[in-house]
Amino acid sequence: MKPVRIAGVGLTPFGEHPNQTSRDLFAEAAKAAVADAGVPRSDVDQLCLGNFVGDVAERQGHQAPLMADAAGIDAPATRFENACASGGTAIRGALRAIRSGEADVVLVGGVEKMTSLDTPHVTGALAMAADDLFESRTGLTFPGAYALMARAYFETYGGTHDALAAIAVKNHANATVNEYAQFRSEITVEDVLDAPTIADPLGLYDSCPVTDGAAAAVLVSEAYADDRSVDAPVVISGSGQGGDSLALQDRSSLCRAPATETAAAEAYDEAGVEPEDVDVVEVHDCFTIAEVLAIEGLGFYEPGSGIEAAASGETTMDGDLPVNLSGGLKAKGHPVGATGVAQLVEMTRLLRGDHPRSDVVSDAQTGVAHNAGGTVASATVHVLQVEQ
Amino acid sequence: MKPVRIAGVGLTPFGEHPNQTSRDLFAEAAKAAVADAGVPRSDVDQLCLGNFVGDVAERQGHQAPLMADAAGIDAPATRFENACASGGTAIRGALRAIRSGEADVVLVGGVEKMTSLDTPHVTGALAMAADDLFESRTGLTFPGAYALMARAYFETYGGTHDALAAIAVKNHANATVNEYAQFRSEITVEDVLDAPTIADPLGLYDSCPVTDGAAAAVLVSEAYADDRSVDAPVVISGSGQGGDSLALQDRSSLCRAPATETAAAEAYDEAGVEPEDVDVVEVHDCFTIAEVLAIEGLGFYEPGSGIEAAASGETTMDGDLPVNLSGGLKAKGHPVGATGVAQLVEMTRLLRGDHPRSDVVSDAQTGVAHNAGGTVASATVHVLQVEQ
Fold first, then answer.
1. Closest to A76 (Cβ–Cβ): which among B46, B93, B241?
2. Hey, are the CB atoms on B80 and A80 less than 8 Å from each other?
3. What are the pLDDT digits (tens) for B292-333?
């Protein structure tokens, strides 16, 4: 599969932005990405946009042409929505556009404005990612759904809240130097264990925050990059997408993520890599247990062994496989529709050498970004590599 | 550009379905499409889904994996949302997936459940397709927006409500034999002119109804069709998408649709056809004036001359260029996210010869389907041809 190059990336700070609407946030991220790419704005052939709760949070659907306006892009624009995997799905839309020969330059982005909703209403908005008839209406919210998955994991494979806590501690530690992160303070295992329980066994520090933010990247074809001498050392060499039943009740297991496995197999196959070739990873850690399911589903650890690997420090910045050097969703924040694209932005900078954590992975050649929607009813995986 | 074949198509009846949710409707359309295709369900590589107001109407986001479940498809699924052009945009996603070599068989579909919202709330939901900050909040609803466009057209080119009425009369007449249409009764010019005014000059019969319904099609690669001897005589030979500023205030003209022009140019170029090669057309007539803008934007009539062409009968079933033989959005109905796919379904049947209006266009080789979002801030155009 022909690689696509990442010419430029941009982010807004993640956090609370009470004075900015989605369009303001997206304009900022897109401007940064286009400037980083050094590509004329008029060369952009399309915009692929990820957004999840805009219809509810801002009464704004049809966001794609609006965000094209905000970005100063005069080109067709399309919104992709797969709940929390909307950003990853938008990236796949952009890749397809380039690989099918339809476009040479695609602006891919994601945006979410969430803090304008108070907590009960944002929880209700996020619950739209689950099955309304058979899950949300019964009162199952996402902390509850992931708590069920954690319980099932503990019962099937063993595991404790202490072990999960190590993941939250790691991701907060990673984020301390990330100027875009929502939380830049370290926490301890005790902080996690002493925090209020949200849905047993998960507590406040097992859960990612509610976040406003935007992310953008300029993707270009190899031909365009060569013709224009675009400096784009990082390529997307593999992309995959998996799906699963939306409702947990229809799954054969609550402690596996087959959508991630499918997406990873496809992405690795396209890139011609194996899990052991991967140097650094960004995964979808909406809850601590989600990071465990992700690193197992991506093939880095056998089912049931991810939790112990995380607890023993294998995935810290000093470990064998640094996971979520950005701080992950847990500490960097989770503006839903932007998250998948933000992972691409962070990974690009990690591999290019201009990320504050690049020194941790200075020899890294291959990174993986994993984005998941709902209780992993949707998943995307992208393999990024430094062009030799 | 490599053609993609339409192996099968399916629809639900359009109208009020108080006892069916979106998933029920989509299951019905998908089942019909898969049966029509004669392709094993297990061969479906992906689902591309169009939906607009599900987040608001059913509190259900993340509809793509839900609809895959409903269709009995175990494959990655993606939702595309570009307001009323969501269906057309989903078709483009499916085409890209096949053309990029990622998939051989894609189920493309659209669904909308709207009648569960009462009129003020469905009007509010539809207003999410406009700019919330600068349009919807000022009280501008879609009948109002299209009324502004009609007024601008009348002032620029001339035109009357009587002329627009001919379009409504034609589309109702076309729909009388369509078993899937919401309205199958003829109306007269007097009915249109005597109907309550919604937003001057547009009245009740200038406006499409609120509709529940679903549409689906199975698209396959040429290689797959050849290998499996799939009977798929109609191909999509061209696809295009255009974009425009979301808000009317940012447009240079209120009586042109440059997004349609862009989409048409791209689709015709891919297909290697000119407007004069087109035998039959389905356009996005959410209001009577929208049909005028569409047939001009598609290049069939010069700007300013479409209204007279329509008034004089050129686009009736007996005219030179039959437009909306299905009944269009006006009489067939407009389940928003399904509409673009429903146009593909109708056009496929018209060209295959198994549509109740196929006799009107028995020699037709080339058809065009045009889907628009908002006040044509998004547009898609597809060229369908009978394989020689």
1. B241
2. yes
3. 999 999 999 999 999 999 999 999 999 999 999 999 999 999
B84 is catalytic: yes
> Residue A262 and residue B76: Cβ atoms within 8 Å?
yes
Question: With 70 as the cut, is the pLDDT of residue B1 above it?
Answer: no
pLDDT at A85: 98
Q: Is residue B172 part of a domain?
A: no
B371 touches chain A (CB under 8 A): no
For a pLDDT cut of 70, what percent of chain A falls above it?
99
Domain range for B276 is 4-118+209-386
Nearest chain B residue to A64 by CA distance is B82
**pLDDT, tens only, A144-188:** 999 999 999 999 999 999 999 999 999 999 999 999 999 999 999
Total structural domains in chain B?
Answer: 1
pLDDT digits (tens, 9 = 90+) for A190-245: 999 999 999 999 999 999 999 999 999 999 999 999 999 999 999 999 999 999 99
CATH number for the domain including A269? 3.40.47.10
Q: Which residue in B17, B161, B172, B334 is the catalytic one?
A: B334
C-beta separation of B146 from B300 below 8 A: no
What is the rounded CA–CA span in Å between residue A309 and residue A164? 11
- pLDDT tier, A351 (very low <50, low <70, confident <90, very high otherwise): very high
In sequence order, which residues have a C-beta less than 8 Å from that of residue B139 and are 6 or more positions away?
none
Helix (H) or strand (E) holding A105, with range, is strand A105-112
Contact (CB, 8 A) for A34 and B34: no
Pairwise CB contact (< 8 Å): A80 & B79: yes
Using CA coordinates, name the residue in chain B closest to A337. B62
Q: Both A231 and A258 in a single domain?
A: no
Reply yes or no on whether A355 is catalytic.
Answer: no
Is residue B57 in some structural domain?
yes
Q: Chain A partners of B245 at a C-beta cutoff of 8 Å?
A: 65, 69
CB-CB neighbours of A359 under 10 Å: 10
Note whether A299 and A275 are within 8 A (CB). Answer: yes
> What confidence tier does B2 reach under pLDDT thresholds 50, 70, 90?
confident
Please give, rounded to a whole number of angstroms, the shortest distance from the CA of B68 to a CA of chain A. 8
Q: Using a CB–CB cutoff of 8 Å, tell me whether B258 touches chain A.
A: no
pLDDT one-digit tens code per residue, B341-380: 999 999 999 999 999 999 999 999 999 999 999 999 999 9
Residue B387 banded pLDDT, cuts 50, 70, 90: confident
Residue at A388 is within a domain: no
Residue B388: pLDDT over 70: no
Chain B nearest-CA residue for A75: B243
CB A84, CB B61: distance < 8 Å: no
**Are A161 and A292 members of one domain?**
yes
List the 69-108 stretch of A: residues with Cβ below 8 A of B.
69, 74-83, 89, 92-93, 95-97, 99-102
Looking at residue B3, what is its pLDDT? 85
Q: Choose, out of A89, A106, A112, A132, the residue to mutate when testing the contact with B (most B CBs < 10 Å).
A: A132
Model confidence at B289, pLDDT cuts 50, 70, 90, reads very high
- Tell me the residues of chain A between 262 and 291 that have a Cβ less than 8 Å away from chain B: 262-263
Give the Cα-Cα-Cα angle A91, A92, A94 (nearest 5 degrees): 65
Contact check, Cβ <8 Å, B65/A378: yes
